[in-house]
Design brief:
This protein is α/β, with parallel strands linked by helices and 352 residues long. The chain folds into three domains: 19-131, 3-Layer(aba) Sandwich (Rossmann fold); 142-215, 3-Layer(aba) Sandwich (Udp-n-acetylmuramoylalanyl-d-glutamate--2,6- Diaminopimelate Ligase, Chain: A, domain 1); 216-343, CobE/GbiG C-terminal domain (Nucleotidyltransferase, domain 5, 2-Layer Sandwich), CATH 3.30.420.180. The protein has twelve helices and 17 strands. The strands form three sheets. The protein has a six-stranded mixed β-sheet, sandwiched between helices. Helix 8 packs across helix 9. 43% of the residues are buried. Residues 9-16 and 344-352 have low confidence and may be disordered.
């Protein structure tokens, strides 16, 4: 019997994404091409003459990709006040009204502007213009590679520097705690964790010279008394990670017993972290071997334990109990580590 799962992602996350594509145009010819592209690529068209700033502000918030059929200068001036960073800004592609060039302007990799420019060029018979260094030089797009493996860079500035070194030097060294599939040719595995350019680990890593990339490798099992608040649960999880030198960013999922499916504090904590909750029946929990048991928990729930077996079940085949049950005020925690987190994404379903 599979677990009962509660998806707690908030609006704007992968569970409730922005609309995929908006096409904006100004001139009559631009509007003709814009309507055609919107139909061909499955987007929404907006005629913007006299109201570009207003339409851009609206689509900027509501769409993940925007094609602008107009001059580059007016687009740059219009979006300048709206830009945050490549992790939040939508992909922007600029196209002339003849469809001769499709320019990837911002969010080329993570936002998908490079891929969108190529789609626009294919639709118009024009030329995609890409200026990202990795694409020009044929190097690994490190940000895309990390996203595919579900890796989060803790130090964004350090990660940007690492991407620069990859372009300048032609390769980076990499150390991973977890199994890796075949690496791109310009990422060189090393056994020297301390001096590697990139380190893939869920542990706190203050002794490394390179950039830490954190996988979604941890599942936190949680047991709690009725009425336990979000704040108490959050402090318990934080303290558990801190005592064992684990990065909270590595938490991929939460797990508990199905009796807690209506536990407000637990649900609120999951929402606050954007994490999915897996719930298991007492029979499922009792089938997990080599976990600690409690007579008090058995009397209250019918399960010999909650935090440890729930974490192990959610973490899937080959998981190991990284942190045994820890008792806190009104809550218990345990942490399991998945066997192969680099085949998973943070919001994806772990193998059950």
């Amino acid at each position: 019997m599979p677990p009962s799962t509660t998806n707690t992602a908030e609006p704007g996350t992968s569970a409730d994404p922005k609309l995929p594509l908006a096409v904006l145009a100004l001139s009559r010819g631009g509007c003709e091409l814009g309507r055609k592209l919107a139909a061909d690529l499955g987007g929404d068209f907006f005629a913007c003459k006299g109201r570009l700033a207003t339409v851009m502000a609206t689509t900027w918030k509501g769409y993940s990709r925007i094609i602008c059929i107009m001059a580059t200068g007016i687009v740059v001036r219009t979006i300048a006040p709206l830009m945050v960073d490549k992790y939040h800004d939508p992909a922007i592609v600029i196209c002339d009204e003849q469809g001769r060039f499709a320019i990837s302007l911002i969010s080329g990799h993570l936002g998908g502007a490079n891929a969108l420019a190529q789609r626009v060029a294919a639709a118009t018979g024009g030329q995609a213009v890409l200026t990202t260094a990795s694409d020009v030089l044929g190097k690994t797009a490190l940000d895309l590679w990390c996203r595919e493996l579900g890796l989060s860079a803790i130090d964004k500035a350090g990660f940007t520097r690492a991407m620069g070194r990859l372009v300048d030097r032609g390769s980076l060294t990499l150390w991973s705690r977890y199994p890796l599939a075949a690496l791109p040719a310009d990422l060189i595995p090393t056994e020297d964790r301390h001096r590697a350019d990139l380190v893939i680990d869920c542990r706190v890593a203050e002794d490394i010279e390179g950039t830490l990339l954190v996988p979604g490798s941890l599942v936190v099992g949680i047991g709690c008394n009725r009425g336990t608040s979000l704040q108490i649960i959050a402090k318990a999880v934080q303290a558990t990670c801190k005592q064992h030198a684990l990065r909270e960013e590595a938490i991929a999922r939460l797990a508990s017993i199905d009796l807690k499916q209506d536990e407000v504090g637990l649900l609120e904590y999951a929402v606050s972290r954007g994490l999915t909750l897996d719930f298991y029946t007492k029979d499922q929990l009792n089938q997990v071997e080599d976990v600690s048991s409690s007579e008090a928990v058995l009397r209250a729930t019918g399960a010999k334990g909650v935090a440890e077996p729930a974490a192990m079940l959610s973490a899937g085949t080959g998981a190991r109990l990284l942190v045994p049950k820890m008792k806190w005020v009104d809550a218990t925690t345990a942490i399991a580590e998945t066997a192969d987190p680099l085949t998973l994404t943070r919001q994806g379903n772990l193998e059950q």
